[in-house]
Amino acid sequence: MDEENLIERLKRNDERAQEEFIKKYSGFLFNVALQILRRRDVAEDVAEDTLLIGLQKIKDFKGRSKLSTWLYRIAVNRAKQVILKEAREDSLKGKLVLMSQQTSFVPEEYRKDAKKEIIWRGMDLLKDREREIITLVDIYGLKYEEVAEILGIPIGTVRSRISRARERLKEIIEERNFFDTEISNK
Amino acid sequence: MNMKKIEELIERNVSREEAKKLLTEKEFKEFEKLLYMKSVLSEMQVKPPTDMEKRVLSKLAKKEKTERRFFGKKFNLVFAFIIIAVFVGVLITRGFIPSLSPVNPQTQNRAIAPPSGSSGNAGGISSQNKKGLQMSSPIAPDYLIKVVVSTETDAQKVRSVIRNYCKKALPNGICEIESENFEEFIKELGKYGKVEYKENSAVKDVTKTGITVKVEVIVQ
Questions:
Q1: What letter does residue A138 receive in the DSSP assignment?
Q2: Which residues partner with B199 through β-bridges?
Q3: ipTM of the predicted structure?
Q4: Do A138 and B47 touch (CB under 8 A)?
Q5: Whole-prediction pTM value?
Q6: B170 to each of A112, B120, B166, B179, how far by Cα in Å?
Q7: B50 CB near a chain A CB, below 8 Å?
Q8: Rounded alpha-carbon distances, angstroms, from residue B113 to B107, B116, B119, B202
Q9: B150 with B199: CB under 8 angstroms?
């Protein structure tokens, strides 16, 4: 109901609704873009572009899915475009390195926390699909039903995919002594 | 180890105490590891820059402005095109572009011819209009002829002579006769009365082959 109301107001170019829309989805879209792109600057650009596209194309939004699903798809497509563009430019320069494979960047927030940094670097080694589902379920706390809608997959697939992704991540960070202190203290 | 069971308990948000009862020691250890990893992950949301809202709104305003300007320009172009089209249309219909004009130039010239009933010399016409007549008008005659007769019978005979020599009747009582017959025509008219004629020097139609005359018959 709230979402319907927000969409209606956005379609009327209500400025308050636009502010509300940006506040509500900027974090989600930024984190989604960050986990795909692994770089803060481009993630910011992708999140901004997605919000802008969302505001401009809201009149075309038919409400067949949730607003978050629609925006998520726009963000993922934009992020993929950025990766392809950079890959093309890199290949022209003679170095084919995908942005998602660059591991040098660690967000400021994680640098202060060793555990978070280990997880961030561990996630670098995950497949895109695995990182995607961990972002939605564990980092952003979405329910399986919501994730199933966003990704357009059955809920059973969400379950199996998140289980595998967690298991993989656990193995990776375990090698880096992630659990050594915490678990043994309990 | 039953991973499915562990995942199920995590999904249901089962407490550590309850999980301990339901799982084996090994499974519980795994459960704890996953739970801890999950708790760290849940704190890993990165805050977007605080000015993102401002930036998006300003980008939106800029885009809308650009779009408005683009549509404005487009509208101006269409408007200018319509004005030019109307202007060209007026020029064509008014005959300012002769090759495109639907108006017959003959008709146009007739429009500036002297009004009916006035003398062939068209005294009221300006010199500019006379030039126009010179070029193509068959209306102003080359000669104005006055025949003074004494009876109505002679007048009819004079009119009959005119009809005989007239190879082409033109408006305003003007006749075109063959050039070589002009002298003979004057002689014939002279048989029935006194003939006076004068050449209309101002008006000359260089395109015609004959001589145009206007004959005034006066019964005295």
A1: I
A2: B143
A3: 0.84
A4: no
A5: 0.59
A6: 112, 11, 10, 16
A7: no
A8: 10, 9, 11, 14
A9: no
